[in-house]
């Protein structure tokens, strides 16, 4: 009749990855294959007020993206999850507290280049959730000749800025790479993006 002793989810973790805040977990031991999960969260400024997360109710997957459900990016939150199967419910399991502002982990930006006659226009796009676009993201850009260790650095551009590089004096294969920056409690940065290389002022 669907009444089974459902064991609670395991390894319940609130983590930040690629600009998102995500709750992850593993199924409890012996969970049926069609078990589902429901997630709620609470803020440190309103404890014991567990809020529903509409897009993470009775879900089959073992993660829930909470980024745009968070009411305040600066207040610590924690989440909890329970398993459901038929009429059975597992106990809730809670994560630790985290806040987006100080715990966010960044992903490298994606570069798009337009090569002009004597310049390159570089635009960096960030895989940001819409709800955090108002925060002040920046990026650093490196330019170097393929095979060289010497990099020219362009530092601290705002996310929506386009960087124009004068290429009049450059000839040959040049590569560009960028990383995302975010100033919270301390300065955070992502890894550098995969290099994008272009042939400049090629005669022939």
Order of helices and strands: EEEEEEEEHEEEEEEEE
CATH homologous superfamily identity of the largest domain: Immunoglobulins
How would you sum up the global shape? elongated
Distance between the amino and carboxyl termini? 78 Å
- Using only CA atoms, what is the Rg? 23 Å
Determine the number of helices (DSSP H or I, runs of at least 4 residues).
1
CATH architecture of the largest domain: Sandwich
| Unreliable parts | none
Beta-strand percentage range: over 45%
- Give the class from helix and strand content and strand pairing: mainly beta
Oligomeric form:
single chain
Number of strands: 16
In round numbers, the mean pLDDT is 93
CATH hierarchy, class of the largest domain: Mainly Beta
Number of domains: 2
Largest sheet: 5 strands, antiparallel
Instruction: Write the CATH fold name of the largest domain.
Output: Immunoglobulin-like
The helix content is under 10%
Protein name: INLR1 protein
GO molecular function: cytokine receptor activity
Domain Fibronectin type-III: 8-103
Organism: Tychaedon coryphoeus
């Amino acid at each position: 009749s669907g009444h089974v002793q459902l064991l609670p989810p395991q390894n319940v973790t609130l983590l930040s990855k690629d600009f998102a805040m995500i709750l992850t977990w593993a199924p409890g031991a012996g969970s049926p294959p069609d078990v589902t999960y429901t997630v709620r969260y609470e803020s440190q400024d309103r404890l014991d007020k567990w809020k529903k997360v509409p897009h993470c109710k009775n879900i089959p997957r073992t993660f829930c993206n909470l980024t745009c459900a968070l009411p305040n990016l600066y207040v610590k939150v924690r989440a909890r999850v329970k398993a459901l199967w038929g009429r059975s419910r597992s106990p809730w399991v809670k994560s630790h507290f985290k806040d987006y502002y100080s715990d966010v982990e960044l992903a490298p930006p994606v570069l798009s280049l337009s090569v002009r006659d004597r310049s390159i226009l570089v635009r960096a796009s960030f895989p940001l959730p819409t709800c955090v676009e108002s925060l002040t993201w920046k990026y650093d850009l490196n330019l170097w000749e393929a095979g060289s260790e010497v990099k020219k650095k362009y530092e601290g551009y705002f996310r929506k800025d386009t960087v124009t590089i004068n290429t009049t004096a450059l000839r040959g294969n040049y590569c560009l790479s960028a990383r995302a920056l975010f100033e919270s409690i301390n300065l955070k940065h992502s890894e550098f993006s995969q290099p994008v290389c272009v042939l400049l002022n090629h005669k022939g």
